[in-house]
Design brief:
The protein has 246 residues and is of the alpha/beta class. The chain has a single domain, classed as TIM Barrel (Alpha-Beta Barrel). It has nine helices and ten strands.
């Protein structure tokens, strides 16, 4: 069943996301890029509002960011997942060792999310299949396909459905949660859900004024209902489709 991950930038948005039906709350600062890191104070404020009602994830920026070493420490009792972008790493031979070193500095209770960029050439990041292989070697808890440059189009503008579905299946077959993101809209949601990811991750789709705008609980609710309806249709299809050989 595909669940809904909503990225929030503050405690007020976190409450609205919960009210709207988000299954997982992700903390990021969208003005700082695809995986913009919020402050430690924002993490604590959001965690207080969520209060265990949903898992929390945090975006930590890019591995090669100059500011990465100054990132606030992860509180393992509040944060379930953390993700770190790999832009610029595609032209470096030692990126996996650096990434592994960073991830292993996190509390054991924090699951690492491997991030593959659909526009990996623009981001100068490793290609998605290479990131998936690295995620299995680390190992990680989840595999996310996102977009780096939000001006370059949505996920399905940058990757074919078949490629996405194959990567989702590859991650899930090895026990990783598969997450799809990247300027997802209602127009592309049917195709994205057909790939059966464990989560779809959104921000701009549930904000007034785009990803740097204000999160709207009603928009979250509408998207949550879309996901629920998709699950019901899938169950009905399963019940009415005869088994092979029957």
């Amino acid at each position: 069943m595909t669940r809904l991950l909503v990225s929030v930038r503050n405690a007020v948005e976190a409450q609205d996301a919960l009210t709207g039906g988000a299954d997982l709350i992700d903390i990021k600062e969208p003005s700082r890029g695809s995986l913009g890191r919020a402050t430690g104070a924002v993490w604590r404020e959001v965690a207080n509002v969520v209060g265990g009602k949903a898992p929390l994830s945090v975006a930590l920026g890019e591995l090669l960011d100059d500011a990465f070493e100054r990132a606030p420490p992860i509180d393992g009792t509040e944060v379930r997942f953390a993700k770190l972008g790999l832009s610029g790493c595609g032209v470096r031979q030692d990126w996996f060792a650096d990434w592994r070193r960073a991830v292993r500095s996190w509390p054991a209770s924090v699951g690492a999310v491997a991030v593959a960029y659909a526009d990996w050439r623009t981001a100068q990041a490793p290609p998605p299949d290479e990131v998936l292989a690295a995620a299995l070697a680390l190992p990680c808890s989840a595999f996310l396909i996102d977009t780096f440059d939000k001006r370059s189009g949505g996920l399905l503008d940058l990757m074919s459905y078949n490629d996405l579905a194959e990567l989702v299946r590859g991650a899930q077959s090895q026990g990783l949660l598969a997450v799809l993101a990247g300027s997802l809209t209602s127009d592309c949601m049917t195709a994205v859900l057909a790939a059966t990811p464990d989560y779809v991750a959104v921000r701009g789709a549930v904000c007034r004024g785009g990803r740097e705008g204000v999160l709207d609980a009603a928009m979250v609710c509408q998207l949550a209902r879309t996901l629920a309806a998709n699950v019901r249709r899938g169950l009905e299809t399963t019940r009415t489709t005869p088994a092979i050989g029957s």
